[in-house]
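Hi,

I'm pasting everything inline rather than attaching a file, because the server keeps stripping attachments. The sequence lines come first, and each chain or strand is labelled.
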Amino acid sequence: MTRKTTTLGMALATTALVATGAAAQDVTLTIESWRNDDLTLWQDKIIPAFEAEHPDISIRFTPSAPAEYNAVLNSKLDAGSAGDLITCRPFDASLALYEDGHLTDLSDLDAMDNFSDVAKSAWQTDDGSATFCVPMASVIHGFIYNKEAFEELDLAVPETEAEFFAVLDAIKEDGSYIPMAMGTNDQWEAATMGYNNIGPNYWKGEDGRLALIAGEQKLTDPQWTAPYATLNRWAPYLGDGYEAQTYPDSQNLFTLGRAAIYPAGSWEIAGFNQQAFFEMGAFKPPVRNAGDTCYISDHTDIGIGMNADTEHPEAARTFLAWVASPEFAEIFGNALPGFFPLSSTPVELEDPLAQEFASWRGECESTIRSTYQILSRGTPNLENETWGASVAAIKGTKTPEELGEELQDGLASWYEPQQ
Amino acid sequence: MADRPRIRWHILVFLAPAVLVYSAVMIFPLFNTLRLALYTEVERERVFVGLENFRTLFFDPVWAEQFWNALGNNFWFFLIHMAVQNPIGIALAALLSHKRLRFAALYRSAIFIPTILSFVIVGFAWKLILSPIWGIAPSMLDAVGLKSLFAPWLGREGSALTTLALVSVWQFVGIPMMLIYAALLSIPEEILEAGEVDGITGTAAFWKIKLPLILPSIGIISILTFVGNFNAFDLIYAAQGALAGPDFATDILGTFMYRTFFGFQLQLGDPHMGSAIAGAMFAIILVGVCLYLFGIQTRMRRYQL
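And the predicted assembly:
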């Protein structure tokens, strides 16, 4: 209630101040978000750019803490006090909001054509008939490496898996660097930066992912178990005691220059740029054989949608159309290197590392993490199970075939197309 | 008229605040949680399903495996405390109560201090100490030539739970020590002197005179350990996260309940199954406490001092 009154009050105040003519149509839109890290970016860059073009609409960005966002947003929506625009988490969290009637169907927004199907998949109903959020940004997986270490050891960036392991062998033999910085203590890195990083090259990106959802492929198929076998080959190149190495440990090992390669997500770029004192480069997940089509995990992470109860649907649509425009993409992509705009028009990025990551979109087929859409809805949760499986694969406590069977049994226990 | 007992209002008035507050923050939530365990959500509606959730928990292969794993780990966690924490606590108390020990107050405070630390600090500090990369454990072992004994204990399925249990023992050993210490101090000199006259001194005096007299305190400590361990959650969560890795090796009922109730990563929270697990925990603790109260406590021999 208080919020509504304030918004109304502000709108009235604005009207009173500007006083004459068209000012009567002035509206203020409020954005709900969990990205409180981006507050200054919105206030200094994004909002002024939009308001310059649309003087009759003013925007307020009101983020809450990431861990509380879902709960806070749900209670605000139920109480009718949520903002006009809502930042969308990918997949089920936002889908639930749409099904409860809190988000508007935006399929008819013209600017939606600026996005590929993969980009939109995170904010669509299962049959793809309705899209309820405008995709904002994705994160890309790959490997970040220490350029100075590579020059020192006279190594070339690996393209194929054989070259990749040859590089790791060379670094290990030299002994001055830990070949690869990753630990299994926190588990998610093994799945996110391991399995879902290299995996798309095995299951051929979207082909495999959609076939799995349709029930045409099984997790016991070789293209789904083979990445576990490859992960197992990583173990000797990880640092001593990698079993107890945490995510921040790995980040520090790499940025302190003690490790040569870091299996990464592009979200690391901003942090690494600040921490590391050496030059960094990036290479995409190596393909299995020279000349193979490459696939990358270009995972949709943030979108923005419209509160179904907003009093200013027209203004909100105007804003969403602008978010879908190349102009927004350029501002956003450069202010937050590592979070890549999803629009199909290429964006001029300034950060060299971010450029490297983004360039793969042109060379490779994009897909998203295999476990995120639909498949992690039931119990056991496939995403969580994949964390454990990837760790077990690296440590070698279970064979890839056993892992595939376990995951398949778990998925089949609740997911009909797989039964 | 005159014989009718007067209603003693002051008793009600004085009891009311405590009863009301306790009911509101303890009794009501407890029973409401148990009630929640009997429902489930179908198509966004809450439906009564009786004991169906418990059947799923105990017999559905997916749930049962996690439940028995967590329960088994919980028993191991408790066993380590009983086998390590309590004997060490008793031994420390016996040493502290020795009259010729100097700096006893210093030792007592030093050993008790970890008890008042937050779990988060303890979990984080030990994770750092045992870290194979930055930790001081590997370098200390290296200094005495025993580097080969070091392993990333927290990261291995076989050793993670035991390591965490020992960290918890380190934190809480001060509690049995203090309780036993107090019990030992309350043993009258005359009894020990009478023993000495009969030729019972030193260690024999401990085993034959002091130990039987502090048995009731040991019983209380055991039951406190039991309740504390089966309600444990914080240390595991702080050190290993909600997935209680590696491969659920450190998953205990508390972390299992948390993960189920509040959800984790892509797993959405399920308050009904979560309540069922909470109900099972409540039942286990209740049975344990009853067994102790009626089976052991009532039979324990008491001595008039």
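DSSP finds 18 helices and ten strands in chain A.

If the labels don't parse on your end, tell me and I'll reformat.
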